[in-house]
Design a protein that fits this description.
Distance between the termini: 34 Å
Radius of gyration: 17 Å
CATH architecture of one domain: 3-Layer(aba) Sandwich
Largest sheet: 6 strands, mixed
CATH superfamily of one domain: P-loop containing nucleotide triphosphate hydrolases
Shape: globular
CATH class of one domain: Alpha Beta
Number of helices: 10
């Protein structure tokens, strides 16, 4: 079966400074995959290249069988690739409800699309804050809103870039539980995070990046069996 997302020999640079060197990985429909590594190793640049925000200089990115590495970001988004960005980036001057409705779309053919009702069932706290502006939410509530907003596009692939960074432990665990639910519902997900123990329970496959290069790939049992990888490349 062909991959939903296939990245091959990806090279990306900012001006004369090359950041990615031949990054390659794939994600199949229904899988949860991770990109792991210390800060500054190229994870977010990889995501930016997938989204068309930092175009690749070499290599290819295929999504749903089509090459997207030369497409504009809005075209890539309309194909069904959604991101929960680092820093959340919600609209501060829109209410919670308006933030969600602004992104409503049907980018996949699921029989049970994401709607306002489904999002607030996943994050009941958002319904309590429906009329609050984005800048009136706590950090955890903003993260829930950012995830709900991405789901409202009904994406084929959901990318979460440091979705639990800086959150209180109880809120962080609530985010993990929601990701478990999304996986159980068949949502394909790419996660960038540092909590390896939690990712071992959630994800099918992992890719570790060090200085812009893939240094290890494997499934959760293989990563769990070699904690030295955590210390060497992830800083756990």
């Amino acid at each position: 079966m062909s991959a939903l997302l296939e990245v091959q020999a990806l090279e990306t640079a900012y001006g004369p400074s090359q950041v990615l060197f031949g990054v390659a990985f794939s994600i199949h429909q229904g899988e949860v995959a991770t990109l792991l590594g210390r800060n500054g190793m190229g994870k977010t640049t990889t995501v930016r290249s997938l989204l068309g925000l930092t175009p690749a200089r070499a290599g290819s990115v295929r999504f749903r069988g089509e090459r997207i590495d030369a497409l504009a970001p809005d075209r890539i988004a309309r194909m069904g690739l959604a991101v929960v960005p680092e820093g959340r980036q919600i609209f501060p001057n829109l209410s919670v409800k308006e933030n969600l409705l602004a992104f409503a779309a049907r980018r996949n053919a699921t029989e049970t699309p994401w709607t306002l009702d489904r999002v607030v069932a996943l994050f009941p706290r958002l319904q309590e804050r429906f009329s609050n502006m984005g800048n009136q939410l706590s950090g955890g509530e903003q993260q829930m809103l950012a995830i709900g907003r991405a789901l409202m596009t009904n994406p084929h692939l959901l990318i979460l870039d440091e979705a639990t960074e800086g959150l209180a432990p109880l809120i962080r665990e609530e985010i993990w539980r929601c990701l478990d639910q999304l996986r159980a519902q068949g949502q394909t997900i790419l996660v960038i995070d540092k909590y390896v123990r939690r990712l071992l329970q959630l994800a099918d496959r992992h890719t570790i990046i060090e200085r812009g290069k893939v240094v290890w790939q494997g499934d959760s049992p293989a990563l769990a069996a070699d904690p030295s990888l955590w210390h060497r490349y992830i800083g756990v």
